[in-house]
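Listing S7. Sequence submitted for prediction.
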Amino acid sequence: MHRTFETTTERRQRTLDGMWEFVTDPDDEGREDEYHESFPSERADRISVPSSWNAHAEYADYVGPAWYRRTVDLREPGSLLFTFHGVARETTVWLDGDEVASHEGAYTPFTALGRDLDAGEHELVVRADNTRTGTTLPHEDADWFPHGGIHREVVVETVPGVYLRDLAVEYDLYGDEAAVEAEVTLHNTGARPAEPDLTVSVGDASVTESVEVYGMDARTTTLALDVPEVDRWDPEDPTLYEVEARLSGEQADEREDEVFADDLRDRIGFRTVSTNGREILVNGDPVEIAGVNRHETHPEWGSAQPLRVQERDLEIVQRAGCNAVRCSHYPNHPRFLDLCDEAGVLVIEEVPMWQVDESSVVACQERAQRVLMEMVERDRHHPSIFAWSLSNECANEEPTVADATRQLKWAVDGVDGSRLVTAASNTDWEGETDEVFEVCDFLSVNAYWGWYRDGDWGEFLDGIAEKYGEKPVVVTEFGAGAVPGERTHEGRKWSESYQADLLADCVDLFRERDDVAGFAVWQFCDTLTDPDQAMTRPRTRNNKGVLDEYRRPKEAYRVLRERLADD
């Protein structure tokens, strides 16, 4: 199950979970040897999907190309739509020996259509490569482990000759009424034109129109409807509405007099997000952001995310009294976002443009914009997401980096005006100006006073307020490392007591200041880092979690809960 609800009732849908044939390709010989046509099954291992191959002991440190294979059975002739929800990092897909898709990026989905297939067995081959370079997103120095493989679900669906390819819903709120526009894309895979009926429903409201789409073509149309007496989504009352696009008509291919039906289902929540001075507002009411940064990682599953891990993580976040999660530093699994929608937990979602400078920004910019658009397209209906983050700790004082980030801001403004936009800045340098802050709706500030450098948080925040004007400030990263179980009477660095004391002082200060709209602790749990960082990261982990990697609490979790959960 890739979401917490059914996304279709008409299509035969299944996930390709289970054991796939798997072989590493350290010398990158698979293309030349045509693994997509003659897979080396005689020497292949079997590996579970979805999972990170690095979560398997024999491939724990493997970085490079690897190949997967499995077969798919089709009961009757027809078309199959494959959706890969996350493959790390560079991917090519073949169906019956023919290339049907390629994609770059580990955290956003892509599709492949197998058109007019015969009944019977079909071969699916996937090449994945988790190699990072100086211009990939994330790049080779990113401070989280380069997990590889098919780490999110592969969903296969039977689709009719004319099927629904996309559904995008926007709305304006006028008091208790929502004026909704639904942009729907239809794809006709047959040679003949078709004119099916298209119905869009939001809750109990619906509208139907006939839509003509030519053979071997796609058509995008917009339907409008009003939804009266809406209950708004709010962190205290997270009301969700079902949205459905439904298609019915005659077959568009040579099979005359046959009817077809298709549907896509999603959920939305009606709410507004805005700022006023130094406050962030949801539905016009100020909210105090109290959150954590969360990587998708676990010692047993790597970057894969079983449902129970996601549920448990969110339960722990809420038990601490937190109301927000910053998805660091990439689009998280859509099912985790579903859980946040249901729980009323606010979310900042981010593009993996991490610590990019002028030496690589030109090469990274096109990749960043593509990931940004894919992220928005996938997650535009999640009401829990109140902000898109364009980057993390990039060299925003450099003109080329600032210009590239401004272009990302303009791009996202062109497709989604319902959320705030920010960029996380490593602002604890001296004598430099963050040129990106001018286009941000609120300022995301990362700093580690008391850990990497000595300094005074109060003076630092005074300087931010004076330099960058009347905008909300969210401290999106702060904290200290703590090796689990390390305790000292003196409260030395790397001890749980030092981490707990630092977090307590910071949280108390942030909550006292009117110019701070919120914070997100770095980080939720200890995470595996790049093996090359082992000599500067005890246990080869970023140990700043308030929990260890198995979600066992440190002292810092207790002090966080004492300050937030009892309010």
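Caption to Listing S7: primary sequence and predicted structure tokens for the chain studied. The mean pLDDT is 95. The first strand starts at residue 13 and ends at 15.
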